[in-house]
Amino acid sequence: MSDSLISRNVVIGEQRTSFRLEPEMWSALEHICKCEAVSIHTLCTWINDFKPRSNRTSAIRAFIVCYLRAIAENNPFHLGHTDECLCAEHGMSQKLCHILRIG
After folding, report:
1. Are 5 and 20 in contact (CB under 8 A)?
2. Does an H or E element contain 99, and which?
3. Which of 8, 21, 43, 98 has the smallest number of CB atoms closer than 10 Å to its CB?
4. Is 27 a residue whose pLDDT tops 60?
5. Model-level pTM greater than 0.85?
6. 19, 45, 49 from 22: Cα distances, Å
7. Burial of 47 from C-beta contacts in 10 A (0-12 / 13-18 / 19+)
8. CA 4, 45, 88, 100 torsion: positive or negative?
9. DSSP 89
10. CA-CA distance, 82 to 65, in Å (whole number)?
11. Is the dihedral of CA 55, 22, 87, 94 positive or negative?
12. Of 52, 50, 31, which is closest to residue 101 (Cα–Cα)?
């Protein structure tokens, strides 16, 4: 793993902000966005809104771990899915809804 952190700008909600992640974390986040067909701005907004922490960078790292762990464990993402879920209101996949609600 690389020791250096990379700072990037992201729009969360309507606010431009920046945070620093390892290159591997940026790569994982970009991979998740590609798999879920969402922009990095949208995903970071959802993480900020539904998995709040005092530190946004920490919330993003935690989400990446939860997402990849759920994939590795082959979680059944459809369990507990209802029309009132986050995905119905925000247009996200059942997988993201599950991870943001429970993960």
Report:
1. yes
2. helix 94-101
3. 8
4. yes
5. no
6. 10, 20, 23
7. buried
8. positive
9. H
10. 25
11. negative
12. 50
User: Taken in order 86, 34, 10, 102, is the CA torsion positive or negative?
Assistant: positive
42 closest CA partner among 81, 90, 83? 90
Written as six digits, the tokens of 39 are 């922009």
Q: Can you read off the two tokens belonging to residue 50?
A: 């539904």
Q: From CA 32, how far away is CA 53, in angstroms rounded?
A: 20
Is it the case that residue 16 has pLDDT exceeding 90? yes
Beta bridge partners of 7: 20
What's the pLDDT tens digit per position in 42-98? 999 999 988 877 889 999 999 999 888 888 777 665 555 666 676 767 777 777 777
Q: Report which residue type is found at 98.
A: H
Beta bridge partners of 18: 9
DSSP for 20-63? Answer: EE-HHHHHHHHHHHHHHT--HHHHHHHHHHHS--S-HHHHHHHH
CA distances from residue 58 to 24, 38, 44, 51 in whole angstroms, order as listed: 15, 20, 12, 10
